[in-house]
Predict the 3D structure of the following.
Amino acid sequence: MSTLAELGEFEVIQRLRAVRSPAPGVIVGAGDDAAVTHPRDGFDLVTTADCFIEGTHFLPDWFTAREAGRRLATANLSDIAAMAATPRWAVESIGAPADRSVEWLEQFERGLDEALFAAEAGLVGGNITACPTAFFCLTLVGDVAPGAAWSRDGARAGDLLAVSGMPGRAGAAVRLAAALGDRARDPLWRDVLRAWIAPTARLELARRLAPLGVVSAAIDLSDGLAGDLGHVCRASAVGAEIDMAAWPEDPHLERAARELGAAPDDLRLGPSDDYELLLAVAPEGREACERVARDAGVPLHFIGRFTDAAAGITKIDGSGRRPLGGAGYDHFAQSES
Ligand SMILES: [Mg+2]
């Protein structure tokens, strides 16, 4: 084991560069003043950024360095999926304490590289600096055919509301870890914890859905379903109603809810960064979307519909229709708002 201080900046950079896989379309990669990449003819570029601060966005007690690196890549890849775009090139800024081991950093980079490489994207550069708290900022560039990007502002009253995967599990895992400590490592909670520690960006689902031409708006779930649905409704100037009876059963989430003394529906709708896709779908497109999701092996459930803005955002359950409370995670309030 060597620390970053023992190795020195330039040796550390060499070690990190050795971890990276090549990406297509790179003319000048890492090691020069800037990277040069060749965009596909006629495509538009799509750019997103995300930052992980150790202790805030990933907890070293719960994430190996490799898992943390994978998750940072996934957070960015998920934004590209929500735009129906293809990820291409990333640059990364790292801050790390001088006494951190280079092996730890290599593992972080390995996780990051694995997730990018699996998505046919790659790191083309970055920089590293000493900082008392470790942080990792990734900027990811993708591309999309002109006019083909999904956005948040296209939902219309009458569109159906669909969501991939099993939202709420990631948030439930955070709460289980806080409430149970090491007991949350019991295999009983494995499926719930995996949603937090090793989520999957829904790039493949988006790639298959986009050509159907029936998705009118999209967002990825990084704050929580209620909060992210609120973003779509505001951008599209529509309301929405969620039919809780249309949700799939999720025995893992329901068991977590019992343990936490929480209502399962509150976990489904509350703060949770699941990196699933929330979609507005033209009603005639429902069956095609369901078929495509089945072929992709990704759960896709139709859980409600978009309405006129005046109706607000409501949920319908056994006790009737109610306004939806809880707006998701607010990074500045650091709580439900
Ligand atoms: Mg997003």
Notes: The longest helix spans residues 65-82. Residues 79, 82, 219-220, 222 surround magnesium ion (CB under 6 Å).
